C-alpha cells in the first residue's frame, strides 16, 4: 500500500513539473509532438499489433466475452484511425492563452479572461487501447499533464502505444512526463489516484456506469463524469409527421449501443393518430421491441406493457419505451423525473413549444427537430471529445479541448492604484 | 444524528422542487423578489436591529473579540448597504438563458450554448449577517436554490433577515423554499450538508482558511473555495519608477486585512537602486514592518531578516516581505512556489516581459501595471461577488452570477437525422 502511495506521489510530482513547462509551450511545439506520435505509431505498427495479440490471447484464456474482445482488438484499420485522430487534433486551434472579453472599466483598468489548462488530469479507462492515444493527444493540445490508467487486459497494447507517445514528446523537445502511463495493474492504484488532490486537478473515468460510480464515490479530486444516457424524443402535438417519424426512428435505430440513442419516446396524445401507426410499423419491421404505457399498448398487439422500471432503463439495445402524454408539461415532468440529463429532443413546428422546451429542459443537450444521435463532440464541432459530461459543474455535454481548460482573469493598467 | 440527516433530506427536497420552478422564472419575477426583499428589510429595521442586539450581547458574554463583534454588528448604515446591494443585483443582467456561439455545422444543424443555473447551492458562512442577504440575492438572480448555514453567533440576526427574504419571495409569487436558512446551530449539520450530493450541486464556504479547509476535506459535493491570498507584486528591471512606487505602496497599504493585499514584493536587482530607497522610506513612514532577503536587508536598518516561512505567510497586516531577484524567471519561480494562486502583478514598461508574465503566471488574476487591490468582483464589473475562487475547476477569481451557472448545449434542426 505504501509503495503504491509512493508511486502516485512520484508520478504526481513528475506530472506537476512537466505540466508547468507544457502550460507555456507554444502551439507549434505541441502540434509537432502530436505529429511525431502519429509517425511513431505508423512506424511501430508491427510492435503494437504483436503486443495487442498478447492481450487478446490472455483475455481469451480469461474468458472475456466477444464484445470486450472486439473493443480490445487493434488492426491496421484501427491504427489508421488513431493516426488520423492525432493529425486532426493537431489541426484544432489551441485553446490555451485565448483572451476574451477584454474591456475597459470605469477605473481605467482593462479586465479580460485568458484560457489556461486545468493542470494535471487523471484518466481511468477500460479495454479500448485507442483511448491511450486519444486522451494523451487531447491533454497535450490543451496544455495539461496527464496520468493514464488503462484496463489490465490491455496493458501490453497500452505500453506499446505509450512508448510512441514518449518518443513523440522527446522528439518535440517536451518533457516526456507530460504523459505518464501507470504500468502496474495493482487495483489500489485507482483509489490512491482519485485521492491525490495535491497532484491531480480533475479525473475523467471512461467506462461503464459501475466504474464511474465507484470512482465518483471515492474521489477527492473533482470528477468529470458521464453516468449514462436515458435520452428522450418528444413528439409534440404540432410535430410535422415526416420529421417526427424520421427523427424518432433515427434516434433509436442509428446505433443501439450508444449513449445518445433515444430510449424513451414521448408522444402528445393528439399527435398519436396522425403519426404513430406508421412509426410503430417502421419500428416493428426493423425488429425493435416496443414497451408502451397503457394507452400506447392499445395501438398495436406488438407492444408490450412497460413497467415503471422501463422509464429508468438505458437499454443500449433494440428496445424502445413509449409513453403517451396529454400535454407538454407532462412530457417535461416525465423527462425531469426519468432523464439522466444527457440529451432530449422535441419535434414540433410550434415556435412557443420549441422555445419553452429548450429553456425548461435541463439536460446537457436539448434539441429541436433533430435526432438525439447528434449529441457528439465531432458533430458539435469540438473536433474531438474526451467524454460527455452529465454533470453541471465545470462542463456539460461533449467535452473537447475547452472543457480541459478554465479562465483566469487578466488586468492591464498604466500605473493604476485603487482608492 | 438521524434527525439531522432527515432535516437535510427535507431541506434538500424542498430546495430541488423550488429550484426547478426558479430555473424558468422570468427575469422580472426574480427582480421583483429582490426589490421586495429590499423593501422588507427597510420595513423590518427595528426588528432586525433588536435581533442583532441579542446576538451581540450573547457574543460579548461568550467573550468574542472586538473584530468579530464588529463583523457581527448591524446598524442603520449597514442595513442601507444591504438594501443598496439588493437593488444593484436587481439591475444586473440575467445570466440564465443567454445563448452564445450558435453556429451552423456542416450537417445542417445549428449548435450553441445556453447558460443555466447550477441547481442548488449550499453556503456555509461565519459571523457577518449581511451574507445572508447577499448570497440569497445572488443565488436568486442566477436561478439557483440555496441552503444557508450561518454562524451560530449570528443566528438571531440571520433569522430576522431571512424572514424578509421569505416575505419577498412570497410577494413575488416564488416558492419560499428557493432560499432556506438552517435554524439549528447543531454542528453536525455542516458535515451532512457537504455530503448531500443528491440535493446540493455546489458548496461555497465563506470564512477563514480553517473553515474552508475543514469543509473541502470532508465534502462530497463540489466546493468553490477561496483558501487565502498570498499575492505578489513584481517590480521588473524595466519598471517605471513612479508607477512601481505607487502600485507597490497601494497594493500593500490600501487595506491590510484583505485577501488581495500584496504580501510579498519581488524586485529585479537592477531596479533596486533606482526605486527601492524611496519606496522603503515610504513604507517605513507608513509604519509597515519590512522583512527582507539578505540583499534587501542591506538597503536599510529598518528591514528585518525574512525567514523561509515569511514567503508562505498571508500577513493580513502592516507587514511586507521583500525579495530581490536576478531575473524574471527567478521571480516567476518564486511565485510558482509560494503564491496561493490568488493575484500577482508585474510593473514593467517592457512589452515582452508583460506578455510573458501574464502568460506564464497561473494565478486567478494576473496583472500588468496595476495594484493587486483591484482583484474584486465589483472592480471587474461582475456587479457583486459571492466569493473569490482560488481553484481552477469550474471558475477562477471573483465569482459573480456567471460563476453560479454553467452552459448546456442547444441544437436546432429541421428534421435532421444523423447518418
Automatic annotation (TrEMBL), chains A, B:
<dbReference type="InterPro" id="IPR016161">
    <property type="entry name" value="Ald_DH/histidinol_DH"/>
</dbReference>
<dbReference type="Pfam" id="PF00171">
    <property type="entry name" value="Aldedh"/>
</dbReference>
<feature type="domain" description="Aldehyde dehydrogenase">
    <location>
        <begin position="13"/>
        <end position="283"/>
    </location>
</feature>
<dbReference type="InterPro" id="IPR000965">
    <property type="entry name" value="GPR_dom"/>
</dbReference>
<dbReference type="InterPro" id="IPR020593">
    <property type="entry name" value="G-glutamylP_reductase_CS"/>
</dbReference>
<comment type="pathway">
    <text>Amino-acid biosynthesis; L-proline biosynthesis; L-glutamate 5-semialdehyde from L-glutamate: step 2/2.</text>
</comment>
<dbReference type="GO" id="GO:0055129">
    <property type="term" value="P:L-proline biosynthetic process"/>
</dbReference>
<keyword id="KW-0963">Cytoplasm</keyword>
<comment type="similarity">
    <text>Belongs to the gamma-glutamyl phosphate reductase family.</text>
</comment>
<dbReference type="InterPro" id="IPR015590">
    <property type="entry name" value="Aldehyde_DH_dom"/>
</dbReference>
<keyword id="KW-0641">Proline biosynthesis</keyword>
<dbReference type="InterPro" id="IPR016162">
    <property type="entry name" value="Ald_DH_N"/>
</dbReference>
<dbReference type="GO" id="GO:0005737">
    <property type="term" value="C:cytoplasm"/>
</dbReference>
<comment type="function">
    <text>Catalyzes the NADPH-dependent reduction of L-glutamate 5-phosphate into L-glutamate 5-semialdehyde and phosphate. The product spontaneously undergoes cyclization to form 1-pyrroline-5-carboxylate.</text>
</comment>
<dbReference type="InterPro" id="IPR012134">
    <property type="entry name" value="Glu-5-SA_DH"/>
</dbReference>
<keyword id="KW-0028">Amino-acid biosynthesis</keyword>
<dbReference type="GO" id="GO:0050661">
    <property type="term" value="F:NADP binding"/>
</dbReference>
<dbReference type="InterPro" id="IPR016163">
    <property type="entry name" value="Ald_DH_C"/>
</dbReference>
<keyword id="KW-0560">Oxidoreductase</keyword>
<protein>
    <recommendedName>
        <fullName>Gamma-glutamyl phosphate reductase</fullName>
        <ecNumber>1.2.1.41</ecNumber>
    </recommendedName>
</protein>
<dbReference type="GO" id="GO:0004350">
    <property type="term" value="F:glutamate-5-semialdehyde dehydrogenase activity"/>
</dbReference>
<keyword id="KW-0521">NADP</keyword>
Amino acid at each position: 500500500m505504501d509503495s503504491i502511495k509512493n508511486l502516485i506521489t512520484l508520478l504526481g510530482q513528475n506530472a506537476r513539473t512537466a505540466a508547468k513547462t507544457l502550460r507555456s509551450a507554444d502551439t507549434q511545439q505541441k502540434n509537432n509532438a502530436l505529429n511525431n506520435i502519429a509517425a511513431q505509431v505508423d512506424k511501430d505498427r508491427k510492435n503494437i499489433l504483436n503486443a495487442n495479440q498478447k492481450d487478446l490471447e490472455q483475455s481469451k484464456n480469461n474468458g472475456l466475452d466477444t464484445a470486450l474482445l472486439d473493443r480490445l482488438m487493434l488492426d491496421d484499420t484501427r491504427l489508421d484511425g488513431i493516426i488520423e485522430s492525432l493529425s486532426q487534433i493537431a489541426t484544432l486551434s489551441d485553446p490555451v492563452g485565448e483572451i476574451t472579453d477584454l474591456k475597459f472599466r470605469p477605473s481605467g483598468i482593462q479586465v479580460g479572461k485568458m484560457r489556461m489548462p486545468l493542470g494535471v488530469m487523471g484518466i481511468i479507462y477500460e479495454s479500448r487501447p485507442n483511448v491511450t492515444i486519444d486522451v494523451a493527444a487531447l491533454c497535450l493540445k490543451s496544455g495539461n499533464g496527464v496520468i493514464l490508467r488503462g484496463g489490465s487486459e490491455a496493458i501490453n497494447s497500452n505500453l506499446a502505444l505509450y512508448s510512441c507517445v514518449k518518443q513523440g514528446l522527446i522528439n518535440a523537445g517536451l518533457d516526456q512526463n507530460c504523459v505518464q502511463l501507470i504500468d502496474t495493474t495493482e487495483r489500489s492504484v485507482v483509489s490512491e489516484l482519485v485521492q491525490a488532490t495535491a497532484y491531480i486537478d480533475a479525473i475523467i473515468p471512461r467506462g461503464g456506469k459501475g466504474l464511474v460510480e465507484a470512482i465518483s464515490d471515492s474521489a477527492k479530486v473533482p470528477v468529470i463524469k458521464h453516468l449514462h444516457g436515458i435520452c428522450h424524443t418528444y413528439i409534440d402535438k404540432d410535430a410535422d409527421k415526416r420529421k417526427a417519424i424520421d427523427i424518432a426512428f433515427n434516434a433509436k435505430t442509428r446505433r443501439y449501443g450508444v449513449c445518445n440513442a433515444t430510449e424513451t419516446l414521448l408522444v402528445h396524445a393528439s399527435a398519436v393518430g396522425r403519426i404513430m401507426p406508421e412509426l410503430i410499423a417502421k419500428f416493428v419491421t426493423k425488429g425493435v421491441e416496443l414497451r408502451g404505457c397503457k394507452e400506447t399498448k392499445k395501438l398495436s398487439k406488438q407492444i408490450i406493457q412497460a413497467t415503471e422500471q422501463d422509464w429508468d432503463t438505458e437499454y443500449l439495445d433494440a428496445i424502445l419505451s413509449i409513453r403517451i402524454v396529454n400535454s407538454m408539461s407532462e412530457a417535461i415532468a416525465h423527462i425531469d423525473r426519468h432523464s439522466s440529463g444527457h440529451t432530449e429532443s422535441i419535434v414540433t413546428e410550434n415556435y412557443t413549444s420549441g422555445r419553452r422546451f429548450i429553456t425548461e429542459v435541463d439536460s446537457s443537450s436539448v434539441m429541436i427537430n433533430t435526432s438525439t444521435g447528434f449529441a457528439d463532440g465531432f458533430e458539435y464541432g469540438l473536433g474531438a471529445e474526451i467524454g460527455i459530461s452529465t454533470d453541471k459543474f465545470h462542463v456539460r455535454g461533449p467535452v473537447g479541448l475547452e472543457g480541459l481548460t478554465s479562465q483566469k482573469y487578466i488586468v492591464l493598467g498604466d500605473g493604476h492604484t485603487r482608492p
